[in-house]
Predict the structure.
Amino acid sequence: MAQDGTPRGLTSNAVCAVSLSPPLLLFCLNKKSTTLPAILDTRAFVVNFLAAGRGDLATRFASPSVDRFLGTRWEPSQIAMGAPILVDDNVAHAECSLSQAVEAGDHFVLIGHIEAASSNGGTPLMYLRQTYAAWPDQEPGPRDEDIHG
Ligand SMILES: Cc1cc2nc3c(=O)[nH]c(=O)nc-3n(C[C@H](O)[C@H](O)[C@H](O)COP(=O)(O)O)c2cc1C
């Protein structure tokens, strides 16, 4: 959330679990990002794990000079300093306080302490080979059969 009350957000696939105790995650953000100042100012952010079928939203949130939140319902996180929760478009979200910002090349590695999280059990959007891909057949494959005997 920017200081003027404007919601900010971008698409990132450089998201990774870090620690269970305490619960930490990270994501990598380009130093030139226009979203970065809002995160550093508030020391808070939300990770919205987009649902399958929301590739258009991921494309919009990666595009400069568009209103990324137009037509998208969001709520300000009470925990993460108003950072936007995309209530209709995520399968899970994590509300984080910024624990560390580590410089790494042309990016910052932003480590978030997960203060609250929610999952609705839907299917997440998958990004594979530079496109938003469908998930493979949910039937168990040979490897699963091996594991389960
Ligand atoms: C699938 C996908 C994944 C991306 N992952 C990242 C990422 O992990 N970190 C990053 O800094 N930019 C990433 N980008 C690029 C940003 O979304 C894009 O540069 C965006 O315009 C940055 O917005 P901002 O400058 O307003 O913060 C990704 C783009 C796409 C399409």
In short: Residues 15-148 form a domain with the Pnp Oxidase; Chain A fold (CATH 2.30.110.10). The chain has one domain: 15-148. The chain has three helices and nine strands.
